[in-house]
């Protein structure tokens, strides 16, 4: 009997070690071609057994009063079954409210910036692709704009790479379209982090929040409010 109990405990411990040493993988994708925008976020874990994908196939700018209309879809791991669908308007008031809530979280967490920097340093970037096509219908203006876009990309990527570990060769390009008016872009970022690193990061975050009076309560309210913003589609 003791032998079987010991064997069961050993199996559980080995399985736990394997899970903690496995990777959590994430991918962010955005593309814009003419007036068609697509944004998707995918998370995978436990060797692909756990997988969630959020897709925003509709992004419509309704003006400064109505803001931006988005439609999002949540897909199961088989990518064929629609699990949930939501619609929302991102207005100026919602952006201001989000800013105030985020600022409140910063105040109630001990050195949140340091925690973010420390956690991002453990993230490995396994794919980075950013291809942009620019055309203004005029060759000199297109050339100038192409150079400006290159400068913006270099600055943004240089800032981002300072915080994450780049393990793949980035594919960055700006392609001028001299004979057409066009702006199209495709951006893909894929990264991974060990499960045990993510767990320890979560524990450190709770510890930092607990060091400030009302920190844990503030984080709970922040998460609950974030979930409440996404309502079922009508």
Major sheet details: 9 strands, mixed
Shape: globular
Distance between the termini: 57 Å
Tell me the structural class: alpha+beta
Number of helices: 6
- In percent terms, what proportion of residues is strand? 35-45%
Low-confidence region ranges: none
Number of strands: 9
Radius of gyration: 22 Å
InterPro entries: DUF2953
Transmembrane segments: 6-24
Pfam families: DUF2953
Keywords: Membrane, Transmembrane, Transmembrane helix
Report on this structure:
The chain has 234 residues and is α+β, with helices and mostly antiparallel strands. It has a domain at 25-90. It is 42% helix and 36% strand. Strands 1, 2, 3, 4, 5, 6, 7, 8 and 9 form a 9-stranded mixed β-sheet that branches. Strand 4 (68-75) and strand 5 form a beta hairpin. Helix 2 packs antiparallel against helix 6 (215-228). It is globular. The termini are far apart.
């Amino acid at each position: 009997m003791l032998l079987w109990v010991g064997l069961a405990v050993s199996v559980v411990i080995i399985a736990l070690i394997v899970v903690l040493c496995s990777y959590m993988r994430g991918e962010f994708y955005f593309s814009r071609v003419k007036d068609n925008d697509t944004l998707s976020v995918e998370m995978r874990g436990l060797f692909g057994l756990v997988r969630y994908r959020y897709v925003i196939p509709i992004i419509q700018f309704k003006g400064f009063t109505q803001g931006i209309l988005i439609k999002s879809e949540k897909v199961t791991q088989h990518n064929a079954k629609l699990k949930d669908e939501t619609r929302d308007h991102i207005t100026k008031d919602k952006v201001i409210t989000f800013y105030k809530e985020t600022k409140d979280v910063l105040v109630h967490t001990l050195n949140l910036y340091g925690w973010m920097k420390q956690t991002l340093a453990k993230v490995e970037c396994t794919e980075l692709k950013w291809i942009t096509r620019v055309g203004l219908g005029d060759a000199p203006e297109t050339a100038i704009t192409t150079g400006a876009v290159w400068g913006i990309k270099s600055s943004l990527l240089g800032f981002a790479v300072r915080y994450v570990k780049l393990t793949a060769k980035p594919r960055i390009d700006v392609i001028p379209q001299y004979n057409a008016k066009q702006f199209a872009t495709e951006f893909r970022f894929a990264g991974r982090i060990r499960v045990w690193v993510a767990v320890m990061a979560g524990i450190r975050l709770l510890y930092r929040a607990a060091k400030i009076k009302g920190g844990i309560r503030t984080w709970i309210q922040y998460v609950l409010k974030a979930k409440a913003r996404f309502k079922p589609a009508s």
